[in-house]
Each structure stands twice: as C-alpha cells, then as structure tokens.
UniProtKB/TrEMBL annotation, chain B:
Gene Ontology CC, one term: plasma membrane
Main location: membrane
Pfam families: NQR2_RnfD_RnfE
Protein name, UniProt field: Ion-translocating oxidoreductase complex subunit D
Natural source organism: Hydrogenophilus thermoluteolus (Pseudomonas hydrogenothermophila)
Bilayer-spanning residue ranges: 12-34, 40-60, 91-109, 197-215, 222-240, 246-265, 277-295
NCBIfam families per record: rnfD
Amino acid sequence: MAQADVVIGKKNDGDGMRWFSWLTSSAANTLVDPVSGRKLYPIDGGIAFPDYHKQETADIPIRNVAMPSHYIVPLRVNPRFTARPIVDIGARVRKGEKIGEPEGKFGVAVHAPTSGVIRDLGHYPMTHVSGLPALAYFIEPDGKDEAIEPTPYRGACDDTDRIRDFLQQMGLAGLGGAAFPSHAKVASSPVKTLIINGAECEPWITCDDRLMREHAAEIVAGACDLAAAVHALEVLIGIEDNKPQAIAAMQAAAANHGAVTVVAIPTIYPAGGEKQLIERLTGIEVPYGHLSAEFGVLVFNVGTARAVHRALTYGEPLLERVVTLTGAADDPGNRWVRIGHPIAELILEMAPKPEVDRYLLGGPMTGFAIPDLDAPILKGSNCIIAASPALFPPPPPEQPCIRCGACAPVCPARLEPMALYWFARAQQFGKAQEFHLFDCIECGCCAYVCPAHIPLVDYYRYAKSEIWEREREKSKAQQSKARFEFRNYRLEREKAEKAARAAAKAAETKRRLEAQAQESHAEASANGTNDRDGAASPSAPNANDAAARKKALVEAALARARAKRAAEATEPSGENRE
Amino acid sequence: MITAPYWRAPVSVTRVMGWVLLALIPAIVLHVIFFGPVLLAQLLLASVAAVVVEALLLWVRRRPIVSAVTDLSAVVTAWLLVLALPTTVPWWLTLLGVVIAIGVAKQLYGGIGQNPFNPAMVAFAALIVSFPAELSRWPLPTTPVAWQWASFLGTPNVDALASATVLDTLRTAVHSGQAVSELLGRSPVFGTLSGAGYEWIAVAFLAGGLLLWLRGIIPGRLPFAFLLTLGVLSTLAWLVAPERFAPPWVHLFAYSTMLAAFFIITDPVSGVVTPRGQWVFAAGAALLVFLIRHFGQFPDGVAFAVLLMNLAAPWIEMKTQPRVFGEDHP
C-alpha cells in the first residue's frame, strides 16, 4: 500500500494496478528480452523511479579534467585490499610506475597517476562513511605527465593463473562501486556464464552509459579477454532498457562475437545489484555468504572489462576511471579522472551552484554524503552529486510504523523489512538475524516507500554493526578465556613437574643416603669420598631438558594457532557487490 | 537523516488515511440518501471526539501531538466505528465507543502502530456486550428521520420504528423453528439481495474498497480471500440445508460483510503482512464470521471474528514467513 501517488512500475504499483496492467498488456509481462530474444527471469521487489535524472549527463561526451595540484594515492582503503609502500618520500615517479606492492591474496598493486615527486606517505582522509583516514602517498605532479614503458601481457589468453597475477600487478579492481579486486575473481573454478554489468540501475549515474556509448568495442574485447581467462562458455552483457544508445553501441560491437550477447533488462532499481543481475539473467539466486563463482557465474562491471582489456593489450595499469559529476551544477557531465584526484578540486569542474549544501558519492539510494572533501577519487568512486535542498529535501520527521507492509513487496531479497525494523529497534539482534538481517543488501527500497518516513536502512546498519561488534567481543573473550585456561594448565603442569622433580630428587637423595649408609656400613671407612654430584647430576638436567622441550613445543603450537587465527581474521567473508 | 537513501517517494501516513476516508464517502452518501443525515452528525461527533481523546492521551503520555493528530488515523477509526454501529445509537454511546477505541484499544497499547486489536472492533465488541438493545435498533429506509434524531439525542419515543439486521432477523427466526424461505422477502428488512437499503451501501463499500485496491492502499488478497471463503461456506450450507441457512448473496451483500472485507480486516496494524499469512487471516476471519452468525449468540460475528484473528495474527505471521532470496537454494 501507500505508494499511492508515485508513478512507478508494475512491481510496486498497487496490487490492483498490477493486475490491471497484466490484463491489458500481457506482452509487457512476458519475460523475454526483445533485444536478444533471451528468456529473462523475474526478480523480486524493486522500484521504478518517476525520474532517473540521467538526462542531465547522459548525452554529454566524457571529457578530461585539468591536472590537480596534487594526488592522494591510497594504499590501504579497505583492510582486505592493501598494498605495501615501495617508494621513498622524495623519490621521483613516472605515470604508471608501481608505488605499492600488493599484500596478501586480495591486495592489488598501486601505481603513480602521473609523473612527479612523492612528497609524503601518511594518513589522509578517504571517502568512507566513517571518515577514517587511510595510508596514502601524496604526489606532487611535475606537469610533464611522463609515462613508463608499458608492459603488455604476453602469455596465453587462457592461462588463468598468469592473467590473475598480471591483473593484480596492474591494480585492477571493480569499477562498479565496491572496488573488489578483479584478479580475485579470476580463479580456475569452472565458470559457465560471464556477466558484464552495464545495468547502471541507480538514478543520476551515467558513467557506464557513456563508457558503453563511447568505448563499446573495448568493453566487448575486455569481456572476451575475461571469458578466455576463466574459460567461460557464454558472455552476457546486461543493460537496463532505459539506455537504448548504449544497447545499440554494445550490440554493434558484439556483432562479430558469437559468444557475447547483449541483453536489455527491464529498468527497475536495483536490477544492477550483482545478485539481482545474476537472478534476472540466469535465474540463479546466490545466497548470502556465497560467491557467484560457486554457481558458475562471474560478474564484472563494464568499466572493469574495458580496464582489463587496456591492461592486457596495452599494459596500462588502472590509473583512471569515468566519474559522473552531476546535480545542482552548471557544467555537469562525465569526466576521465585519475585515481587519487582530490574531490575538492574535482567538484569545481562541474561548476556547482551556490545552493549546494553537500556532495554525495554514489547515487541517492546507496551513496553517502562525503564527510571530507579533501579525500581522493578511488577506484570505486562512480559519481559525485552536488546535492541541494531542492534536489534532496530533508526527510520528513520519522513517525511510528503503522505496519502497512509497503516495505515488503519492494524488497529484492524478499525480507520483511518491517520485522527487521522492530527487532533492531528493540535491540533483539538475535531475532533480527533469524529474520535474515544479513541478507539485506541495503538497497534502500523499503525506506524509499515508507509512508512513516522511517530511515529503515539506518536501523539495519545499526543492527549489523552491533552484531559484528558483539561477535568481535565474543571472539576476543573466547581468546582470553583460552589463554587464561592455558595459563592455568601451564601453572598446574609446572607445579606437577616441580613436585615430580622434587619427589625424584628426594627419592634419589634417599636412595643415595641409603646407599651411602650401606657403603659406609659395608666398606666402613674405606672410601669416604663418594662422588655426590656425580650421582645426582644425570637425573636433574634430564628433567629440566624435558620441561624446556615441552615448553618450546607448546610455544610453537601457540604461535601456530595465533598465526592461523590472524590468517582467518584477514580472510574475506566472501561477500562482494559491484 | 545522514545516510542513504536521500530520496523518498511522496507518501505519508496522512495520505494513506486520507484515501481510506475518501473511499468511505460513497457509502456515506448512499447512507444519507437512504436513512437521512443523522449519520453525518454521528460522524462529526465521533471525529471530533476521537481527535480530542487522542490529543489528550498523547499529552498525558508526553508524546508529539500534532504529527499524531494530523495523520488522520483517529478519524479513520471514528468513521469505521460509526459505520459499524446503527445510526440510531444515542450520542453518549458513540462517545463512549470512541473513548474505548482511541483511549483504550489504541493509546493504552502505545498509540498508532502498536495496538494488537482493531480499535473500532474493540469498541464495537464492548458496546454490543454492554448495550445489546441499543445496538440492534437499525433504522429502516422507512424510518422517519425525526425519530432517528430523537434516538440520537437519547429520547426515542417509539421503539418499533427500527429493527434488527437481516442476519439477526434470520437467526432469530431459524432459532424459533421458522424456515428461511418463509422469511425471505416477507419482512421489511429484506431488500433485493440482502438488507433493505443496506445492500446498496454494501455495494458502495465494495466500490470504495476497489478504489483502495487500485491505489495500492490495501492488498487485494485480503477482501478476496474473505469474500471467497464466506461465499463458499454459505453456498455449501445453503445447498445442504436451504431451510436453515440463508442464500450466499444475503451473506455477501450484508452491510457488515463488505465493511469488514474492505475496511476492517484490511487494518494493517492489527492484521498480518506476509502474503500467505493474509490468505490465512482473511479466510480464518470469514470462517469465524460464518460460525458466529449461525451458531453464536450475537447478531453479527464480524467484530468477534476480527478480534480473534487479531489474537492469532502474530503467530500466523511467524508461520508464514516468505522464503528469502537464495534460501534453500538447490
């Protein structure tokens, strides 16, 4: 109920309207894409917005931006995707030069965006909701933009391991938003379907749309490269049907590639969510905590596909991406922006209007207000919206939930958002988990339609972070408990060993004394100088040796356990969204 | 709000409640045409009383008053209560009903969204238990308006000008051994399909309900399952024993049936939100309505049926959770 006056798609129209449209136009409901003739699978929930605000930027060609005064190139944006600094402060670097060495399984290399001098290595503000700073290089450009000699990929096109390592060294990460390391997806597990995500379902954002219109051939080439690398049988390029020019361009580019199919999917947010796109195209539901690869599906963003092609063919590391600059601005549009470009300088490019009160990173449904504009553009930064009170009015005050249930039919995960809200509010986190809190993808559809204006997603984020915090506390407590128990065990054992040693010693002394007595008794005063130490020494060091050996073994075991735990802590949870 | 989404659909509780009130207008208009303007006085009295009681209790509870009063939910409750009662009830009885509905059933439980029972039905149940005589004086289309006014003001002089509902008349007759067929069409309470005059108001409820359905305010499955279940049960009973059970159309086009189907069981607060649960809720309510109408002690079963289902609602909801995305994947 309650979507009364919103002109929205058949999914979240009233029940009645849905039936009405089904009766009047059954063709609109047949789930076959008219572009490719492929069967499409139904997805749940979602919202068709009355205005997508894509027209502001979609028809303007991508432009370059002026060189900024400095670049802030981060090494550790995400605790899982880190790189180790390998260039000293004061060093001169050239464009494309590697300045960060990937760390661990998920780390990706970091490269200098232009030629210049490294002025600092320190913590700088990042575009993260928390506003927490991260380790980054501060690079002062010299204006020459000199590049290093590129080193294209020379191996076989289906050598999965070599391509994986190459992509890691080229700094490839998902350009869809989550910046998941691309090489980590290129694994040797069998992949049937490779999906290239060109849905771009969130309002305002047009960077993928522009890229598909202008660089369709490179995207298709990248898709083919990736398909060869993971031995995929088919490539599906999913694009929402509100981008007809992009679809046409991609179709033309894919015309000569038999395995590549461009599929137009219905425009309904969040159809471009990784899980939703997979469901729409293949009917597979990838559950929470599982990777799509387990189901034989891999998803890459269109921008990532192009970057993969540029890296393999031309040896270009991932240095730049397309960023949509839009909102209350006089010169909106898409721009080629290098990673590390300070946002404060980038926003001037779109000539923001005076009424702008904040800048959003990402779209209005899942983005966030940038806490510190000194932060740089990252690999996942797809859009900056100059937000004004007119475009994004402050929400009406939160009212009590009337259990109207409007939130449930729009949920793409088929959750009961209302129940989750009650549990989060009542701090019944166990119940919230029982009702699948962690299946929530935080798309914001429920909060969008709520007539009581409840910031539902905020409640879910709160509940999730509380649960994580408790889990951390619990594991910490468990570790301390284990440590304490081991200490008790060690003390007990040492006490027992000490007692045993003392008993042995006592027995030995007793035996010796008896022997001595016997000797003295037998040999009388013949040989009074019995070697006391000689009799005692072989046994005492032996006991000490055994204890030391045991201690060393235990310590080694503890160290192993610690290392294992540390490794587990840095392992990924296996969840990613593009 | 500091985090996403930064966009919201132009919806509000006030708008939802406004649509419900709008959907009741056709029935009210027909009611006034058939029975005169007393209903309007009742509606006005109840609306004002509901808002005053709500504001008073919010003030006592130190809760925001303006947003709660302007959401129109109290007015919806007041209108539904008035429409559930005969228009001839004295003013103080309406007032008492509003106090019970808003004061006890709604605010004592914590205000909007917190009440486990449908407030209008709680008030109706309390009144029918306490004042059965007043609540069985339904005006006929022939009842003079002056008499209705007198009754409203608390001074009814002639008692025989109003009567029981169709269902009540039938039940009493069957209990006293008369056959249904002897009664149908012979008493002035009967119209073409069901109650004289009331059957057309029931049709107006149906029309208003369809409007709410088309606007997406109520889910279609609730009234559908309710009417379907009641229709099937009454048809079966009628086919088996036509002398004891009224034909299905008498049940379906009874005033209380249509009011319940589109405006009472669709109350989201005290109802069920899971799709499968809504089928169970509505079908269960219809079954209880059928049983109470035929085998109970009260003239109509809607209030008690709805309250009983309200009791079961949390359990139904728990047992009918939908399969979440990716759950039980092959």
